[in-house]
Amino acid sequence: MTSAQIDSSATRTNQYRVPETMKAWVLGGPEELALLEKPVPRPGTAEVLVRIDAIAVCATDIEIIHHGVPAMIDGELPFNKGFTPGHEYMGTVVRLGPSVDEFQVGDRVTVEVHAGCGRCPRCREGMYTSCLNYGYRAKGHRANGFSTDGGFAEYAVNHVNTMVHVPDDMSDAEATLVVTAGTAMYGLDVMGGIIAGEGVVIIGPGPIGLMGVGVAKALGADPVILTGTRDRRLAMGKDLGADEIVNVLHEDPVGAVQRITGGKGVQYVLECSGAPNALNEAARMVNRGGRICLAAFPSDPVPVDIAYLVRNNIYVFGIRGEGKSATHRAAALMAQKRFDAKLIHTHTFSLEEVPSAIRYARERIEDAIKVVVAMR
Amino acid sequence: MTSAQIDSSATRTNQYRVPETMKAWVLGGPEELALLEKPVPRPGTAEVLVRIDAIAVCATDIEIIHHGVPAMIDGELPFNKGFTPGHEYMGTVVRLGPSVDEFQVGDRVTVEVHAGCGRCPRCREGMYTSCLNYGYRAKGHRANGFSTDGGFAEYAVNHVNTMVHVPDDMSDAEATLVVTAGTAMYGLDVMGGIIAGEGVVIIGPGPIGLMGVGVAKALGADPVILTGTRDRRLAMGKDLGADEIVNVLHEDPVGAVQRITGGKGVQYVLECSGAPNALNEAARMVNRGGRICLAAFPSDPVPVDIAYLVRNNIYVFGIRGEGKSATHRAAALMAQKRFDAKLIHTHTFSLEEVPSAIRYARERIEDAIKVVVAMR
Amino acid sequence: MTSAQIDSSATRTNQYRVPETMKAWVLGGPEELALLEKPVPRPGTAEVLVRIDAIAVCATDIEIIHHGVPAMIDGELPFNKGFTPGHEYMGTVVRLGPSVDEFQVGDRVTVEVHAGCGRCPRCREGMYTSCLNYGYRAKGHRANGFSTDGGFAEYAVNHVNTMVHVPDDMSDAEATLVVTAGTAMYGLDVMGGIIAGEGVVIIGPGPIGLMGVGVAKALGADPVILTGTRDRRLAMGKDLGADEIVNVLHEDPVGAVQRITGGKGVQYVLECSGAPNALNEAARMVNRGGRICLAAFPSDPVPVDIAYLVRNNIYVFGIRGEGKSATHRAAALMAQKRFDAKLIHTHTFSLEEVPSAIRYARERIEDAIKVVVAMR
Amino acid sequence: MTSAQIDSSATRTNQYRVPETMKAWVLGGPEELALLEKPVPRPGTAEVLVRIDAIAVCATDIEIIHHGVPAMIDGELPFNKGFTPGHEYMGTVVRLGPSVDEFQVGDRVTVEVHAGCGRCPRCREGMYTSCLNYGYRAKGHRANGFSTDGGFAEYAVNHVNTMVHVPDDMSDAEATLVVTAGTAMYGLDVMGGIIAGEGVVIIGPGPIGLMGVGVAKALGADPVILTGTRDRRLAMGKDLGADEIVNVLHEDPVGAVQRITGGKGVQYVLECSGAPNALNEAARMVNRGGRICLAAFPSDPVPVDIAYLVRNNIYVFGIRGEGKSATHRAAALMAQKRFDAKLIHTHTFSLEEVPSAIRYARERIEDAIKVVVAMR
After folding, report:
1. What is the band of C77 on the pLDDT scale with cuts at 50, 70, 90?
2. Between chains, do C197 and A222 touch, taking CB under 8 Å as contact?
């Protein structure tokens, strides 16, 4: 850091007065969220303090608030611990922890969830979302809004590894969608990632599925086929780049894929529905040697035709989160306007209205897809 | 080819008089095998004629003879078509088809099953066991003993891609086991293949599982843990290199793996049992981000805890056969005496006794593991 | 193939009367090309006969015509053998060899160069452009315009593996550029292929370099930096998607890359210039752990700072041709109008004018980039 | 950590009294090493204090002491900064920094060099030896004996990521060789790592080359060919598992490889000699599509035949150090007695005799290969 940089950073720091306390939604018992005053956290080494400007509601937030799952370390539930949920946020860097020069005060950033411990075998090979020290803060692991405080608040601390710069011409609301697109990107990455000209089916037009359509098409997949039950969401998928959409209420999805591909099937399926039979259907959508990524799941065990997977040399990739810096790649495509992520942003609320935001997302009121809480 | 080579080859060719007809077991209806006289086939371009010296009985042979599965192209069953089953054979090259210089008359060879079409997208990327033209002989695909005549006979034609040289000091019987070891090797390959120092669990001490123990240990995996129900087979696994064996009749296999690994779990599981709950157990044996290869399967759909796979970022690889030239690598390890494959060879019969050989294998008479038919 | 398909194919076949002989440019001694009458070749198994509609001139054609290099098998030179050069062609399928159903008579296709033997270790792993039986036609290898007759003629035979469908709205001339874009795509593939948001430098705005710009930008690379000496070509690179262009006559290219990337360097360099110092410069453009693909080369050995490569953990990938089906991926991006390949097509000639076409390409008359010979 | 563990650890801690100061060799100007009294360092978070029990002399140590290269961050040289060199050491854990439970006091460990920053793009993808923050201690990077104090001393601090457990039956001296074997392992890894049955040439029978022989043979490579100029070292290579050795003073190494492989060449070359023509020779040892890893380098630029690399689709991997946890895999093979690393340990000195140890290593007195400084 040159002294000129330091000066400039000091000037900027003065621009952002950070109070001692902040408003934050805190989880009491299941479904009990309260807007409380809480100390503003301080960034440690390799961390920054982010003033939160916008945050989107994710289905997992709703799960955490309701069931506490996915459980934190050692099966502990997050209830009555002063925990603030929320992980799909973006904002402005207002303080730098020691040694940070990757970001400057004033930078607009959006976040991904996981900072791995950096010292387990998984982190050592770059698979930080599968950190074997998940939840151990003392060992360095952080998962914003999962095992550490998240973004339904005015401020949050973030490790530099969990942040991506936001370009000036991307709105706050759009920037909250980067992590969702990053999850879809990771799903395509783990299946091989080189998909230009290959057929890709996306099952389930939820936020990850719709972003998956945008990313897959941006990377040149062809055809990109989206299956689902809601015409409005399917139409949104079309706007995001799907070559074909299939409403499974009107056509068997496996038959539709075979029809569209002239009986060849596709190379890749990104399963984002969590439907009980989705894996079996996906297996029949891919050709021999095809690959399936599971980004969603049914809550209970379901019957799976394993013989079909083995006989057809099919690989199945369960993914947790948005690893391998996929968020950076998704952000790059969005910055280049390769697809219009904003289409899935349907509703906006204020910080005070978080319970309404969550209700809209959970109950899909007015067919809500992405509900965003905007702070300014 | 120099003229000296041609002379030598000619001399050798004269050594191997090939008759017009041969004895071959031919499949009539289900379970109907008859030893008939059949024309000796002629090798085409890139093919050779192999005089079969030994062949092992595989569980899949029994399936084919009984159910006709896995069905040939277009769902056709192999019954009453003059089909000769059997794919785990070795022998001596006695005639060369046009353009062959990879092998010489007199060479001892063992075989793998699949010669891909070489022209579909899968073959073009080297995944010839997942050939999209499976069963189309006109397009070049051959699967010995599956879609083309196999080795329960005196002679068989083989594409050069399906053959591996056998060193002088490897017996005929041992050489029939190369393809089984190759399947295990392929299973380890698809999971990443770099396993020195990593924990590997092999579920199921059948032939593939036991060869998997040998291969995994030869490549430096540690610990190699074998689970099963039969003490004799488990003990054989120990002799093949397993660091730990677990009889699941006496100890829960997931608990045993956690005990042995100090709660860490392993990185890889090679599932060779086809047991209904094997995938769910495998998922709980691996650590987060672990990998499972399915080399066997239950015949019917079984409940699978997909949520566990997704939340733990687990990858599952179904494999068909012994692709990616894994048979060559397995043969290399066996040639270097890295493990003693002969241990699993338990019984020997003559060509005339094929029905007995099959019966021993199917009913596991005298705890038969690998039953070999030796021609000389 | 259903009988309806056969009928339709028969009808189409009748549409394309194929004569017994054709006009073809034939190579005598070095630089001696003559337009002769030659028998129209017949397609064998897995081959088709293509009526050539357009062909572009490649620098390698000029090399072959002048020096005979790269030499054919066994060091044989292609002179006075009745050889027809030319490999960047496209056309219409007019006859199908036995077993072909991947293409129909009447299909418009463009070609890649290499059909591997399908039986060497390289082909078995999908690296068919590195076929170990290069030039052995008896073993199945074919390299159009290199080891087998090429496209400066009215007709040519092609293996199905070397063909890609051309969409209706892509012109003949544009379709001849697919193989060039495929080479650039292969270069990006071998370096990892997942480049969204990563910096890529392309050295050398020749045809491969310019197509590399288009492909890299289509896949989301950012920034894409093109370096060269000719402003007109650099401007063309800008139109093809380059974020930055650097004329190395006016700015040191290494310094420019460091300037543009804020001192970070890029992740990937695709070297397409063959300049003597290009590898050393590329090494200083990438960051530690970066990757360089060499798609061009100086004719003589040049000094290389190997110590720099080793100390900075740099990987260098020499590529031959357009392997791993990269041509299909490039064609898919072009079919989706992701970049305008037509920009590099500068001149057009007729079949009779091939010598002029070659002269324009060789001497860069009127700054010719891609010179196309159009047959209709 | 259970309380029982804590007690046990406390007891062990008491066993190892750690003084305030220690003896350490400190680098003054070039070639000026002095044995001084220095404070014993304290382990920070994720670090331990290691009592050094043995350390081997590496050629790089000699370079650092003489030239200061490879230069530390920002081109700074390590002279007159109180720096202690030495990186091939092993010892006993005597103190745990905060949050460490991967190791216990009393554990015997050996070390690898690099702890990456964990926050640059390279570290995030697991390439920590190519850390883009090399030398920035404030950002977490440490390279023992390069950018932070090393092991020619009584104690050294180590990040947990740089340590591997040593089994009881491995001697101190042998354990110092793990990092050398790890470098060879990394070289094989980056070339693909799946080498059973493949031909591998090792150029240069120095410590890395000889360990490369051991590792390659342990993983089933065949043939393993070692080339060099010193018969004694070549014979040692034979004892370590080389199938063939070639003294290049008596036979051209390229010709020898072609002779041994029947003209086929090998798939992989691990170049450990740094000889000026080694890369050109390696290129002619591999077959088309082959791979070369450069683990050594000539100090000045040398002529390289780039055209040969490109035309033959050869990949060249420069490696820095021993990344991707290769040290763990090498240690696992050594723990399993797959090769006898001890063979290359030729001389032993005491801490006071470090200058003699270095002299023996540098001048190859009595053909010294690995010179070890043993502390007890």
Report:
1. confident
2. no
